[in-house]
Amino acid sequence: MQLPLSWIRDYVKPKQSVEKLAELLTLTGTEVERVEKRVAKFSGVVVGEVQTVIKHPAADRLKVTKVIVKEKQAEPLTIVCGAPNVRPGMAVPVALPGATLANGQTLEAATIRGVESQGMLCAPDELGLGDDHAGILALGPGVKLGTPLEQALALNDTIIHLELTLNRSDCFSVQGIAREIAAVTKTPFKPHVVKLTEKGRPAKGTLNIRIKHRAICSRYVGRLVRNVKVGPSPQWLVNRLEAAGVRPLNNVVDVTNYVMLCLGQPIHAFDARQVKGHSVVVRWARKGEKLQLLDGSTQALTTTIPVIADSEKPLAVAAIMGGEHSGVTEKTTTVIIESATFDPVVIRKASQQLRVRTEASHRHEKEPDPAMVEAAADYAAQLLAELAGGEVAKGRIEAGKAPPAPRAIPFKLADAAALLGVPVAERRARELLTRLGCTVKTGKSQWAVTPPSWRNDLRIPEDLTEEIGRLTGYNTFPKTLLAGPRTPSVLPSSLALERLVRDRLASAGFHEALTYPWYGQHQRAAFGLNGPHLELLKPLSQDQQYLRQSHVPRLTEAVVKNLPRNDELRLFELGSIFVPDGKVLREDRVLAVVALAPEAYRELRGVLETLAAAGGIELKQIIGEHDTSFLAGATRVATITPFSAPQARRHKIRSKHPYAALELSLTGLGQHWIEQTDFRPFSNYPAVQRDVAFWLPAGTAYGPIHEALTSLDPLLTTLELFDVFTKADRRSYAVRLTFQADDRTLTADEVEAVLGRVHTILADHGAELRL
Amino acid sequence: MPPSIEQLKREALAALAAVQSPPALEAFEHRYLGRKGKISAALRSVGQLAEADRQRVGAAANALRQELIAAVEEKREELAPDGAAPRDDVTVPGLPPRRGSLHPLTLFMRTMEDIWRSMGFSFHQGPDLETDWYNFSGLNIPPHHPARDIQDTFYLKGHPKHVLRTHISTVQLRAAERQSPPFRVVEFGRVYRHEATDASHEAAYFECEGLAVDRHVRVTDLIGTLTTFLETLFDRKLQIRVRPHYYPFVEPGMDLDMACFFCGGQGCGICGQAGWLEMMGSGMIHPKVLRHMKLDPATWSGFAWGMGVDRLAMFYYRYADIRLAHSGDLRFLEQFN
Ligand SMILES: [Zn+2]
């Protein structure tokens, strides 16, 4: 919200500079986003009135005007002008000789096509008021001739831009901010006083108001204003609305906006002619009812939409927006002013259902001060009388009951001091709460504090504690540390495992990446992710529609992105995947590792095997059509997908290296993980190494040989495949075997005996020894 | 040792003793240890022996091979003229070891984790998919509370009771289910906001939230703890200010600001001319929330705070586009390790 300081100063006159004031407001919880100081970009321009307009004798497009810049000026100024909108009686900005315009140009008297022009009528752009150059700026009524224009337009004002919090409904108005300023600066607040003169027949009898459905509205107040002349608003009102960021329209609509901004209570104006049966009813809409709103849209109403209706049809969606039909037009003469207290939740639901939010609806959602209902209706009536020549009918028409006065909050000063951590003097607490408008009834150990009608956010003792805290200033508080006992901080096992996994991968040359947790149909199809996915109701875009079940699609995109600068790539990501499991929504922590490297598959398998070994987990391999999975116990915990060259190319990976991806469920791994903390003794006797190399026909798997050798003999402690190459239709494997005993030095015979059995196994598997 | 091998050994050792020059040594290696050398020939011929002899002879040949290799190395040393070998070029640059990297946000979160641990906070990990209760209602944001507006929630098709958590304040209720006070808990995790992304806005980002519950926890503890945390994190005295703010789940609620690093408080584009950067939201846990934790507000009080990790990391590492974290670009990922 933005408000001009000059308006606020109607109600409070703080001594502080605006900067200091902004800081004080911010530090007490009313955040000032910025202070905008407006300065006129011109000088020497005054308010004038056009008397006559005639055609220029020597130029078709030009006009010669007579303009006065003071009352009863004997010799009007002659000014040549080319604007199409200039006409007699118009109030206009007149730049006199010597004036400086927005572009820095200094004006001098000049002869234009033989006519001497004693000044210039200005368009908005020439004054630096926007870029409109279509015509002369038309000033509103009520401006004194000769007034410097910057004064008439209140241009040298300061606008305060506020970032308000939801709970402080009272601050969404000039009066509310003024009251807050008064409280934080200890300056007197001057409440708004309505001065209303009533005239003519009483409103009661002319109009009936009925609240049919109490759930919508607790209190409805109407005023009737007759003989209204709809027209432009006076300049001062236009200035204030514009400074508050509201576009002026006509005097009636402007008055409703002005009163809302001023007092915080939304106001609506109906054209009385369009209200059938002299009756205004607050009720739920009926099925099938339709209403064209002021914004031009037509809404099909349902029984959950609250409306203001006449005897026949809806006139407005209550508290949200008026109907086009009953709106104020130039022909309107009698106006019905509505000021009411609506149920915030009803309004909020309706606003969401219709997808219509207005300044009025968002104020009603926050429950504006119910005590302002009458004052706002009266003030609007007063302004219509003053600015639109209206006659205010005697009396208000009222329905419903004012909500009960706020209840007293039991308050213990000792509790407040304990929560804040600073001592709070009794007198000071009382003074602060009183300053905010609370009524304080002190007692021995407990006070009764009644908040003012406008502070519906004050409900529990802690709310009052906050008021004392914020007005005292948190920045004056000492800083302390928690006094209580401390227990040792231990990472939960799931987080410890994630830390271990990340560290191992990073130290093994893999780079951690982070990708978005969603993808679209395209990625699902490309990576064969065909299972049911969780789908977002309103995704940010089509390719962010599904919650991921794999990190690989996005990691692959990262690989492609980095490819121009890298020959080999190794990336990993650790994060959640989301799987609908019937009604249960499963969330797994998953590690994905991708490698684009000469031995991509073996690297990933190595990562998997060493991780599993670290947790004492034995993996069992299952070979699928396109990938291979690994079981821990009976649970599938990992999958490795080696991409074929054409597949990789389809994913836009152009490289001489193979591409592969590992996906490992840490949730699954964690369930089988056994922390390896016991010492494992090692042998102090020498180890003997032997290399064996052999051929296998292409297409014969090496895995079974490896498995058979691994469990062959306790003396054969490790075997390492260290060289593989293909030649014609055979593939060569070289394996280094290490023999060692725990309790003795092995003899050559012992080693040879095992080696002999190795040869037998090789022969059984169709291997041909290489020498 | 079988006689054939014994003989081979004698012959080889004699030949080696006669070697006087590096070329001669090379010739010796070729003759005895080469692929077609005498030892290999001996090993090959093992196949023709009787089954009983094979292993014995093979082992002896293998042993002899090892022995000769060692002897050759010794001879090589002997023959090398002292200091005559050209010195290695020590001016060449080093060969970097292959190393990977942890994501800058991971590193940053670990830095923060370490500080919280040192201050006695333990860790919690909750789900990203949350129910309405943990994300909203339990935190004093009932249905149709205006505060639900500013949360820009992601909802799921067909699962109306779930949301992607919009903040990690969910830890307040979840942590209390696992332990009884006094406790100090922190959670780091991802949160989701339905928001168009740009240089300073993300739709999926990380938050860190924590809480401390005990008898007599005070606002001054909150201010002191969070100030200590920030000063430890940035490793210097900081200008910090506390500003009252509204969050439905705390009372009183407040924001912590730090004087802008970039302009020193003068006002710049990064701080929106304010001179201050908002670091975190915080407050004393609302009595309603305490009751939802099954704690009696008359006995227990606590404070909670939350902060955006990605945003804070931008200040910490001094980069200007929040989306870099999700860019997958190695030039970013490798930095800071
Ligand atoms: Zn700055």
Protein model, in words:
With 771 residues, chain A is an alpha+beta fold. Chain A has six domains: 2-37 and 159-185, Phenylalanyl-tRNA Synthetase, Chain B, domain 1; 43-152, OB fold (Dihydrolipoamide Acetyltransferase, E2P) (Beta Barrel); 198-400, 3-Layer(bba) Sandwich (Phenylalanyl-tRNA Synthetase, Chain B, domain 3); 409-475, Phenylalanyl-tRNA Synthetase, Chain B, domain 1; 493-672, Bira Bifunctional Protein, Domain 2 (BirA Bifunctional Protein, domain 2); 688-769, Alpha-Beta Plaits, CATH 3.30.70.380. Chain A contains 20 helices and 39 strands. In chain A, helix 6 runs antiparallel to helix 9 (373-388) and helix 7 (344-354) packs across helix 8. Chain B has 337 residues and is an alpha+beta fold. Chain B has two domains: 3-79; 105-336, BirA Bifunctional Protein, domain 2 (2-Layer Sandwich). Helix content of chain B is 38%, strand content 19%. Chain B has helices at residues 3-18, 22-33, 38-45, 51-79, 104-118, 132-135, 171-178, 219-234, 287-292, 309-317, 330-333; strands at 122-124, 129-131, 162-164, 183-192, 204-214, 240-244, 250-259, 276-285, 301-308. In chain B, the strands form two sheets. Chain B has a seven-stranded mixed beta sheet with strand order 1-4-5-9-8-7-6, with helices on both faces. In chain B, a hairpin with a 5-residue loop joins strand 6 (240-244) and strand 7. The radius of gyration of chain B is 36 Å and the shape is elongated. Chain B starts with a helix and ends with a helix. The mean pLDDT of chain B is 90. Chains A and B meet through strand 2, helix 7, helix 10, helix 12 and helix 13 of A and helix 3, helix 4, helix 5, strand 1 and strand 4 of B. Bound molecules: zinc ion.
